[in-house]
Every structure is written in structure tokens, then in C-alpha cells.
TrEMBL record:
Transmembrane stretches, start-end: none
Subcellular location: Nucleus
GO MF entry, a single one: nuclease activity
Classification lineage: Eukaryota, Metazoa, Chordata, Craniata, Vertebrata
Primary location group: nucleus
Cellular component terms (Gene Ontology): nucleus
Identification of the protein by name: Nuclease HARBI1
Superkingdom of the source species: Eukaryota
Listed cofactors: a divalent metal cation
Stated family: Belongs to the HARBI1 family.
Pfam families assigned: DDE_Tnp_4
Length: 132
């Protein structure tokens, strides 16, 4: 696994559903969100997870080989990257694809100190990015 903390910057975060514990690198929704930032966070979390799942479904629809990969994890990563590259080329060329493409509106990196508690990471993101 690649490090997610680089000089106080996150290279990425994983989103999990409620069955997983909230961890610094695996953010889950608030179980009982308070009105305002927590509800906004949960809404954005849900939309983002839905977009990720839709994208995975789109890739599996376009590349049937992704449905049942029976290879080593390293080889699976190579295959997935190749499929994503081919998908991007097809999208640039205007090829038809199985689902609607959605533009990504927010690609700003999240800057946080190296926090070790998942709930603290979630609260920091919620308070810095989801205030009304």
C-alpha cells in the first residue's frame, strides 16, 4: 500500500460504509449526524461513494475481464490500470460507453496534519469543508 500522508498532505482517502470503523485513512459516515456540517458531510460521502461505484460498474461493463479477475494483486492492478487508460482514450475519442459520464467538480487536495484517529480526521474535514 502506498503511503497516504506525504508532508502533511493526503494523497488520497478511502470511503467506507457504516459497517467499517472510522480510521485515519478510511472515512465512514457519521452514524447519527447532527444538522449542518455532519449532514452535509454524509451527503457528500454518499454521493462520492455512489460515483465511485458507478465508475467501477462502468469499467466492468466496458471491460468484461474486470468482472472475475483470477490473478495476483499486482497483475490485477496492471490490468485495471490498462483498462482505465483504454477507457480514457475511448472517452477522449468520443466512443460510446455503457453509462453517463459525470464531470468532477472538486479536485482540491485535503491538507491535514498527520492525525492518527479516524474520527478526528472526519471531524476536521467536516468542519473545514462542510460548514453551511
Amino acid at each position: 500500500m502506498y503511503p497516504l500522508y506525504i508532508a502533511g498532505e493526503f494523497d488520497g482517502l478511502l470511503l467506507g460504509d457504516r459497517v467499517y470503523p472510522c480510521q485515519p485513512r478510511l472515512l465512514t459516515p457519521y452514524p447519527d449526524p447532527e444538522p449542518g456540517p455532519q449532514q452535509n458531510f454524509n451527503r457528500a460521502h454518499c454521493r462520492t461513494r455512489a460515483r465511485v461505484e458507478m465508475t467501477i460498474g462502468l469499467l466492468k461493463a466496458r471491460f468484461q475481464c474486470l468482472r472475475h479477475l483470477r490473478v495476483t494483486p499486482d497483475r490485477a492492478c496492471d490490468i485495471i490500470v490498462a483498462c482505465v487508460v483504454l477507457h480514457n482514450i475511448a472517452t477522449i475519442r468520443g466512443e460510446q460507453h455503457p453509462a453517463l459520464q459525470i464531470d468532477d467538480a472538486d479536485d482540491d487536495p485535503i491538507h491535514l496534519p498527520a492525525i492518527q484517529d479516524g474520527r478526528t480526521v472526519r471531524d476536521t474535514i467536516c468542519n473545514n469543508h462542510f460548514r453551511i
